[in-house]
């Protein structure tokens, strides 16, 4: 049995208290963020019901309703017994099949807004991470996420790529930045899922990931920012190419 790592910055950022106005919808959104961005991986168990309800600041009834909705949608399953709990399914639902151009029409100006916001957040996160003296655990976490992304299958690549970018925000030391990065990545993921994974692009992307992580670990904020900016510019150009 594998349990999601407790106490990580992404864990804290995504399982933060929800707003009072729509607790059910926001609880579903937070749990989906944790699953789709790789914070809780397939086969891992979500934090306990008591812990999650307290951290999200929702009733256990609301949490159970949200978990039931995700169970019906195919994202999680509940297991009974001594080692029971709510587990992320090994095989997650496939993203809806829709063209990038159709999604672009649906999202309208929101696409450019999300791309600009992502560039501002993630270049800043890389720079801030490189400016900090990382703990050994933080450095190992970054290396681990990089290795998992580099070796990911095509089916897992988007999720592992999301997890690496979120890890960079985590080691910036700002939970608010981590939350914002998760939010904007969720806005863009449906678009990213709608464009093909090209082998040459993935190879280039992995080299850029390595350069970003190396700059962060070397404590070089300027290089971390510039390499992240180049990486995000390439992704944005690819997206715009498929959207036009």
From TrEMBL:
Residues 21-91 form the HTH gntR-type domain. Pfam families: FCD, GntR. GO terms for molecular function: DNA binding; DNA-binding transcription factor activity. The keyword Cytoplasm does not apply. Keywords: DNA-binding, Transcription, Transcription regulation. It comes from the Bacteria. This is GntR family transcriptional regulator. It comes from Kribbella voronezhensis.
């Amino acid at each position: 049995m594998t349990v999601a790592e407790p106490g990580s910055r992404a864990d804290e950022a995504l399982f933060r208290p929800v707003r009072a106005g729509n607790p059910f919808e926001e609880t579903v959104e937070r749990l989906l963020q944790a699953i789709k961005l790789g914070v809780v991986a397939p086969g891992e168990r979500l934090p306990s019901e008591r812990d999650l309800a307290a951290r999200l600041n929702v009733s256990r009834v609301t949490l159970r309703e949200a978990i039931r909705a995700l169970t019906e949608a195919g994202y999680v399953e509940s297991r009974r017994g001594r080692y029971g709990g709510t587990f992320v399914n090994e095989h997650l639902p496939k993203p809806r099949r829709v063209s990038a151009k159709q999604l672009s029409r649906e999202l309208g100006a929101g696409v450019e807004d999300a791309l600009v916001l992502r560039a501002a957040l993630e270049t800043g996160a890389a720079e801030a991470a490189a400016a900090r003296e990382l703990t050994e655990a933080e450095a190992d976490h970054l290396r681990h996420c990089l290795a998992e992304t580099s070796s990911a299958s095509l089916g897992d690549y988007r999720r592992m790529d999301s997890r690496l970018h979120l890890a960079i925000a985590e080691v910036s030391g700002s939970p608010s930045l981590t939350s914002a990065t998760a939010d904007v990545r969720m806005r863009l993921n449906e678009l990213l899922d709608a464009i093909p994974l090209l082998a040459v692009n993935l190879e280039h992307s992995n080299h850029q990931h390595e350069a970003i992580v190396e700059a962060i670990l070397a404590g070089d904020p300027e290089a971390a920012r510039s390499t992240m900016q180049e990486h995000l510019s390439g992704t944005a150009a690819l997206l715009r190419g498929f959207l036009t």
